[in-house]
Amino acid sequence: MKKRVVVGLSGGVDSSVAAYLLKEQGYEVIGMFMKNWHDDSVTISNECPWLDDSNDAMIVAQHLGIPFQAIDLSKEYKERIVDYMFAEYQRGRTPNPDILCNREIKFDVFLNAALKIGADFVATGHYCRKGEIQKDGKAYFQLLAGKDPNKDQSYFLCQLTQRQLSTALFPIGELVKPEVRAIAKKAGLATADKKDSQGLCFVGKVHLPDFLQQRLEPKKGTVIEVPNDSLAFNNEVDEPDLITLTKPHVLNPELGEVVGEHNGAHFYTIGQRRGLNIGGYERPLFVIGTDTEANVIYTGSGDDHPGLYRKGLFIPNADEHWIREDLKLKAGESRPYRARIRYRQPLEPCTLHKKEDGLYIVFDRPQRGVTPGQFAAWYEDNELIGSGVIH
Which CATH topology does 311-389 take? Predict the structure, then answer.
């Protein structure tokens, strides 16, 4: 009897090829389109990308001769992703909606909907791979980087669990993007030349600050420039402890001078350069910190400003997640890994230190733009071992 797979058809070339490959491999394939957004009150553009994408997904399903249906997950999306996003930005943190979408929607609500119609697996067009190993008589699933180094999307799946991975298939993980497009063209798929989607994973062609301004009121505040010599790298302290190494820089108005004003500290994120609209500087200004309570933005001149760099970061127990539960560190244990703090960042050598209150990650060299609310993910070779929210 054929195994049944529900493919998340997004209307893009990657998921289209995923569905094609699974059908070629002999699975019973069902295409399902997730409608995650139709709240016009926070949509700036008059374009309707989800409608175009839904039509493209349906055309692909018809071409492949597979059943197709659309599922409206906009209620769950608003509750689990959008409301959380606004709350995080209000607090001066920068969430990652793509990671949350995979954890909360694609591999939870969508997965459960697929299982209800008898699916054995769900499949997506992510550039990553799944492995399985036996250890002490128990099977563990592995989340592995995709073969295409330019497209590896394992980072976006860093919050998945063993249960979620057990039902997941990633048919294009062994391919590079040009191969995917070539397969689509040869198979006559309508999405073969369609450009990759840009922007928020649910709203489409909307500028993030414009989107945020629908809910977060603009509020004038001051921009303060902090001179380079007002801060020192945390690792310059003599024999620093883990807390010193991993804490954010302490910033206050007395460190610098007012150089302009902004429309709301919650619209800005660490490392940001665009959108400050402050000229007359030989070297560009970068955001090195925000204070949403006082509505102050701190900036530094030049991309070598010490305020842009941190030697480490902290993840509290509640936000610590291990895909490989068998490798979870116990309090007092340390282990070297390689980690990234954003998508496409090269993996950086680091050491994880587990303490009673959480996980301390100390990098071999200071990292630029460590941002609260974002996710750090750690790897062993090409396997993603765990992740957590940066504080």
Answer: Elongation Factor Tu (Ef-tu); domain 3 (2.40.30)
